[in-house]
Design brief:
Layout (H helix, E strand, L loop, with lengths): L12 H15 L8 E7 L4 E7 L10 H10 L8 H10 L6 E5 L4 E2 L4 E4 L2 H7 L19 E2 L4 E6 L4 E2 L1 E2 L5 E2 L10 E2 L3 E3 L5 E4 L3 E6 L2 E5 L1 E4 L9 E3 L2 E4 L8 E4 L3 E3 L7 E4 L3 E3 L3 E11 L4 E13 L2 E15 L2 E4 L8 E9 L2 E7 L7 E5 L3 H37 L6 H36 L5 E8 L3 E5 L2 E4 L4 E9 L2 E6 L3 H10 L1
Parallel strand pairs: 11-15, 16-18, 17-19, 18-20, 19-21, 20-22, 21-23, 22-24, 23-24, 24-25, 25-26, 25-27, 26-28, 27-28, 27-29, 28-30, 29-31
Antiparallel strand pairs: 1-2, 2-3, 4-8, 5-7, 6-14, 7-13, 9-10, 12-13, 14-15, 30-33, 31-32, 33-34
Length: 509
């Protein structure tokens, strides 16, 4: 055994060369890796990002195909941004997250909506502002009037919306819009599609509890500053009173359980005032086509197309009826017309007219004051019209004679004057004929073949002026229980005849 240290053996030349080459590979970049794409799914699969790890050594840079493979490996199939992938490759966007896929959020449906067409009626009917931009608070009515066949309400139907989709292709359900259920109430019809509602009658539009209706009757406690003036296309019922200075205007009937102050009450149909009228010289009650019923009237103006019925009295009032006036009460001392005037075309039936104080009172039967006023107006107009026509005829005659003397030719001014006069005369002749026809009809209606009566159940007091058609008398002495009528221009006082007896006599004639 030798004491010399053992010499280290040198590696074989091949092994040494291999080791040196390996070292060279590491130093010279021969240990290479291609770029790598790391894909993440985020926000419940509604977004995906990719972060690219750059290549090493001589490794390949990222490609679109590499990106798509990495995305596919993550099962991403929807919302892929091709432009983002191209940009990553072209710009070599390494080591930063880039969004490469986005899902579709669901689009929820829109709820059904209503278009309130009847709101427009408020502005159409608003009379609260005058020409000077002053506000009349009495005209700030809350009533919404409508006419038949007007669109009141329109529904825009709900939408379904669109579903969403995740980046993995999973469908996300949307929330559909909610529908509205609208019921057609009284006086309203719905179209076949169920999207439009129309009024069937005139009246007040009421939309309450998902039901739209049109009511042709409105009930109010009182008419005052809280309600303002009432202009209603239907029947108005007032449970209380109508305060001074207010207006009721109805296209149907009016019923007032309390009293009426210095106000205006107009209706196309019947008017019933249970509590009477305290007019204070400013009240006007008018029924254009019907009757008026009142307990009493004081310092007021009542006009009815047909009849006026008063239970207690009419004091210092004007009563005008197209047919008859009845102021009758079971108590013979009530049912009185005292002061003012009353006119009716057919008859007046009253317990008492005038009083012991002999207050001046005027009664007219057989002709309305309006007809008499119109007759007086037409008589004057027709006379003047025919006088003017006569003057026109004379002027035309002179021009025609001049034209004949000149051989049928006039200068331009004279010819134009002639044509103007001829046109004026033609128009005036037509107008005069129409007015004459109207006047003749009024004469026939008022004076010819018509018998009118004034019935006194109890007393007709002195200082009452009675006019029956063309006859008139001023009562000097009280007349009791009698019927007064016109007989050849004189007023006859006959024994009392009730309405049935008058009809029987008319039938015999």
């Amino acid at each position: 055994m030798s004491d010399e240290p053992e010499k280290e053996q040198s590696p074989a030349p091949e092994a040494a060369a291999s080791s040196a080459g390996e070292k060279k590979d590491k130093l010279g970049g021969l240990d290479s890796h291609p770029a790598e794409a790391i894909v993440e799914r985020l926000n419940n699969d509604m977004r995906a990002t990719v972060q690219v790890i750059p290549p090493t050594g001589t490794g390949n840079h990222i490609t679109v195909e590499m990106l798509k493979k990495s995305i596919a490996d993550k099962k991403i199939v929807h919302g892929i941004d091709e432009e983002a992938l191209q940009k990553i490759v072209l710009e070599k966007q390494y080591m930063k997250p880039v969004t490469v896929a986005v899902g579709d959020e669901p689009q929820n449906g829109i709820d059904a909506q209503l278009v309130y067409h009847f709101d427009k009626f408020i502005h159409r009917q608003d009379t609260s502002i005058d020409n000077f931009n002053r506000v009349d608070f009495k005209e700030l009515s809350k009533i919404i009037n409508t006419e038949p066949d007007e669109m009141l309400l329109e529904k825009i139907p709900p939408t379904d919306g669109t579903p969403g989709r995740t980046i993995t292709g999973k469908v996300i359900r949307q929330v559909k819009g909610k529908d509205l259920r609208i019921r057609a109430g009284k006086g309203v019809r719905m179209d076949e599609a169920g999207l439009k509602w129309y009024s069937e009658i005139a009246g007040q539009v009421i939309y309450r509890n998902d039901q739209i209706s049109v009511e042709n009757i409105i009930e109010l406690e009182n008419i005052n500053s809280e309600t303002g003036n009432i202009r209603f296309k239907g029947t108005v019922v007032v449970k209380g009173i109508v305060e001074d200075g207010f207006v009721i205007d109805s296209t149907a009937d009016v019923r007032i359980m309390g009293s009426v102050g210095a106000s205006q009450v107009k209706a196309l149909g019947e008017i019933a005032i249970v509590g009477g009228v305290f007019g204070k010289g400013h009240a006007k009650v008018e029924s254009k086509e019907g009757n008026i019923y009142a307990k009493f009237t004081q310092d007021a103006d009542l006009r009815a197309a047909k009849n006026i019925f008063i239970e207690e009295y009419s004091r210092n009032s004007t009563l005008r009826a197209g047919k008859s006036i009845h102021v009758v009460n079971e108590n013979p001392n009530r049912g009185r017309i005292l002061g003012g005037n009353a006119s009716a075309t057919e008859e007046i039936h009253c317990n008492n007219i005038g009083g012991e104080m002999e207050i001046p009172t005027k009664i007219m039967v057989g002709v309305s004051k309006e007809d008499l006023d119109r007759i007086a107006e037409l008589e004057g107009v027709v006379e003047k019209r025919f006088n003017t026509l006569d003057q026109l005829r004379k002027s035309l005659f002179f021009i025609q004679r001049e034209k004949g003397r000149l051989g049928g030719k006039l200068d331009q001014d004279r010819e134009e004057l002639y044509q103007r006069l001829l046109l004026t005369m033609t128009k005036m002749r037509l107008t005069a004929m129409n007015e004459a026809i109207e006047l003749t009809a009024l004469y026939e209606s008022v004076y010819i073949n018509k018998k009118s009566h004034l019935h006194i159940v109890n007393q007709l007091f002195p200082n009452v002026e009675v006019n029956i058609q063309l006859a008139s008398m001023n009562v000097k002495k009280a007349i009791t229980y009698a019927t007064l009528t016109n007989n050849d221009g004189n007023i006859d006082v006959l024994p009392f005849m009730d309405h049935e007896h008058v009809l029987a006599q008319t039938d015999k004639r």
